[in-house]
Amino acid sequence: MRQLQAEIITDAVRNMCIEANCILPDDVRKCIVDCHQKENWTSAKESLGKLIENYEIAEREHMPICQDTGVVCVFVEVGQDVHVMGDLNEAINEGVRQGYSEGYLRMSVVADPLRRVNTNDNTPAMIHYDVIPGDKLEITVAPKGFGSENMSKSAMLKPSEGIEGVKRFVLQTVEDAGANPCPPIVVGVGIGGTFDKVALLAKKALMQPLDEINSDPFYAGFEDGLLDSINSFGIGPQGFGGKTTALAVKVLTMPTHIAGLPVAVNLNCHVARHVSRII
Amino acid sequence: MTVKTISTPLTKDIVSSLDCGDTVLLSGTVYTARDAAHTRMIESIKQDKPLPFSIENAIIYYVGPTPAKPGQVIGSAGPTTSGRMDIFTPDLISAGLSGMIGKGVRSAEVIDAMCTYGAIYFGALGGAGALLSQCIVSSEVVAYDDLGTEAIRKLEVKNMPLTVIIDSKGNNLYINGRNEYIGAVKEGVQCRRKG
After folding, report:
1. pTM, entire model
2. Does A122 touch chain B (CB under 8 A)?
3. Which residues of B are catalytically annotated?
């Protein structure tokens, strides 16, 4: 059994919170640059150019790419042969606390959804654990803004609605979101599982590298088809018209019940932040 | 493309000179307010108490900035989703508010009030908080300090790049811009819009 001090996890989460908010991942940059080159609607091309300028300023000045530095979603894959010395949840939250305070990031979390008093340290993080073989611990930190989170949806479809039903639901969600989630967006789709699992799948779909093709050719084609349909809507960057409404569509699936077809769509803005570390 | 350079206060003359789709460079004073500050301002109006700033011909920027680092005027400061403020906005427009800066769709009630009283809805580039912070030259909390990022700040801006999303005639860029693009694609025309 490998022993791991909780402080190491706190330090890693602290650094990842700051990095994720100030430095846009390479795959997202590549995708924005690519869309900027391919966009032929003048005003849309200009908007995409300004988004590139924005993330370049953020990196240079070491300041947040977006003022909504989000609620921190943390995905932890815990090797079953790792023993964390100390309180793992608290170690992660302490990392968030330090990162948000020392990184001059915005405190955007309220302690109670109805009484709405700010916790003033951006905790608690939304933490998800998976136990995996091995003695390593992989942490992904993904600050999530709520402009796009608020436009996300889930539904329990009938199995007979099939692939067409899922397509309709995804496209309607993007259409309804319009300009609100700061297009160009990333569309995370979860299909299958249960009511609770499908939403998590959609969120995890947003962590997939944008430049990676789905290893299942059936879903690779499904993602491409959805992206083409979304980019024919004409919503465009900022919602002012144009081709580039979405940067990518990412789908994750899992087995489900004979009676059900759960689907969830989690939208992300173009500031698609996530950083991973293996400890 | 014509760029219109304007300064605050946002008088009715300026309001009526702006059209949906215009690119604007704004200089002068804007006040920040988002969800919690709006709730408090509407309470003040209901109780006949004065608002924390003069609302006549004023502009509200829907933003909750990140904290300024030492030496900075302000942190990242891009727009938040305006629609959450829709329920409060008609009362502020009827009280004199003539401009709003944000992103995302507005309700029919807000657009009606904008047409009735004369107001403009400007878009700032969503998700570009680092870029937009560069045109803010000063920032001072003027009310509701306890709300942290949601406090009302008086910002001085210089050449802030904005787009008129909805003008005082009710013309809406979210509808017109998209239709224009789709129309052009159908006609096989590209690179056309105000190019």
Report:
1. 0.95
2. no
3. 38
B19-32 pLDDT, tens digit each: 999 999 999 999 99
In chain A, the number of structural domains is 2
Q: Which residue among A41, A65, A178 sits closest to B193, beta carbon to beta carbon?
A: A41
The strand pairing partners of A146, in sequence order, are none
Question: Tell me, what CATH number does A91's domain have?
Answer: 3.30.360
Residue A90's identity, in one-letter code, is E
Binary contact (A180, B80; C-beta < 8 A): no
Instruction: Domains for chain B: give ranges and CATH numbers.
Output: 3-187 (3.20.130.10)
Average pLDDT across chain A, whole number: 97
**Do A175 and A267 share a structural domain?**
yes
- Which domain range does residue A244 map to? 147-272
Q: Do A120 and A226 fall within a single domain?
A: no
Chain A contact for B186 (CB, 8 A cutoff): no
Q: Are strands B23-32 and B152-166 parallel, antiparallel or unpaired?
A: antiparallel
CA distance A170 to A173: 5
Position A75 in a domain: yes
Q: Pick from B127, B180, B195: which is nearest to A271 by CB?
A: B127
Contact between B19 and B130 (Cβ < 8 Å) = no
Supply the DSSP symbol for B53.
Answer: S
| pLDDT > 70? residue B189 | no
Q: Least CA distance to B70: which residue of chain A?
A: A104
ipTM: 0.94
What tens digit of pLDDT does each residue of B32-63 get? 999 999 999 999 999 999 999 999 999 999 99
Q: Are residues A135 and A240 in the same domain?
A: no
